């Protein structure tokens, strides 16, 4: 490389560093398993997927993705060779975490006919429960203290964390769990979809045991890709496009 080209190359690299913009390109992003309307199995669609794709596209990035079990999402960057992992919780693992990406509103839901009274997390003890993988980490300190993994805990015979939220909802509607702990939107989606194969017409009660919303982020391997994504995510929110995508699935 001659001196003129070398100077041009250095100038370009300095400009890239000054602007903080990562080179655009195709990124491999890990998403969880089936959890409509956020992710539809291997169909490469869903609210989470669309939001991710459009936020990355704001800075010229494209996305292809791989499904991994929810339990492996948190360590996908370290173990699965991906550029990012969507809808995880921030941890001190060396990854670069985005602003809040997806928010879930979780409830403990029971059949009205069961007449189960739930005023606090403590009241869940003694009931059969269907939750998602790693739910114990996402529902607050009281829930984690009560249901964190413990091979000696008696509750393990009646507390189930399932990798598929379809299986979780089926477990509830088939009567194999008295309580389902799930995001309201996901529950309502499956209630409609599963009506084709199981009776989902019974009245239910939403118990608000988890007052705070649960916010999830995206973990990235590269800081500048994370910054590009945050900028795109802010653009989606400010322009109303984020809510348009939500409404397209929910309404």
Query: So, the CATH homologous superfamily of the largest domain?
Result: Periplasmic binding protein-like II
Q: How confident is the prediction overall: mean pLDDT?
A: 86
Number of helices: 9
From the helix content, strand content and strand pairing, which structural class follows?
A: alpha/beta
What is CATH's topology name of the largest domain?
A: D-Maltodextrin-Binding Protein, domain 2
By CATH, the architecture of the largest domain is named 3-Layer(aba) Sandwich
The oligomeric status of these chains comes to single chain
Described by the principal axes of the CA atoms, the overall outline is globular
Provide the low-confidence segments as ranges.
1-22
Alpha carbon gyration radius: 21 Å
Q: Please, could you describe this protein's structure?
A:
The protein is of the alpha/beta class and 251 residues long. The protein has two domains: 3-103 and 214-250, D-Maltodextrin-Binding Protein, domain 2 (3-Layer(aba) Sandwich); 106-207, D-Maltodextrin-Binding Protein, domain 2, CATH 3.40.190.10. Helices cover 35% and strands 21% of the residues. It contains nine helices and eleven strands. The strands form two sheets. Strands 1, 2, 3, 4, 5 and 11 form a six-stranded mixed beta sheet that branches. It has a five-stranded mixed beta sheet with strand order 8-7-9-6-10. The radius of gyration is 21 Å and the shape is globular. The protein starts with a helix and ends with a helix. The model is unreliable at 1-22 (pLDDT under 50).
